[in-house]
């Protein structure tokens, strides 16, 4: 079952939610924030996706892209997979 990561736009909390089936990028209803109860949450995209939806912190996206690019340029595929799994 896929796990998706969400971020609360109001308080910045990040949390995971398990779905019984795959959801599309725009198709899922936003789950409420476990920290403050706000439904103003946004699904986080993969670190390897370049264009994030509105609501994602640009600084965080840039940092993740930089990290991904560095990993891709200096590490093997095996190490990238290790890095990806370490993020879970
Ligand atoms: Zn919140």
Walk me through the topology.
Layout: E1 3-8, E2 14-18, E3 41-43, H1 58-74, H2 77-86
The site of zinc ion (ZN) has 8 residues, from loops.
Looking at the overall shape, the CATH architecture of the largest domain is Single Sheet
Overall CATH class of the largest domain: Mainly Beta
Radius of gyration: 14 Å
Spatial separation of the terminal alpha carbons: 14 Å
Sketch the major β-sheet.
Answer: 3 strands, antiparallel
Order of helices and strands: EEEHH
Uncertain spans, ≥5 residues at pLDDT below 50?
none
Question: What does it look like?
Answer:
With 88 residues, the chain is of the alpha+beta class. The protein has 2 domains: 1-44, Rubrerythrin, domain 2 (Single Sheet); 57-88, no CATH class. The protein contains 2 helices and 3 strands; from the N terminus they run βββαα. A 3-stranded antiparallel β-sheet has the order 2-1-3, with no helix packed on it. The longest helix is centred in the C-terminal third of the chain and has 17 residues, at 58-74. 7% of the residues are buried. The model has no long low-confidence stretch (mean pLDDT 77). Zinc ion binds next to loops.
């Amino acid at each position: 079952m896929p796990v998706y990561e969400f971020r609360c736009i109001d308080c910045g909390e990040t949390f995971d939610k398990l779905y019984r089936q795959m959801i599309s990028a725009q198709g899922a209803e936003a789950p409420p924030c476990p920290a403050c109860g706000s439904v103003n949450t946004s699904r986080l995209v993969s670190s390897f996706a370049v264009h994030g939806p509105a609501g994602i912190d640009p600084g965080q996206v840039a940092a993740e892209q930089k990290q991904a690019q560095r990993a891709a340029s200096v590490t093997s595929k095996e190490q990238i997979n290790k890095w990806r799994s370490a993020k879970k």
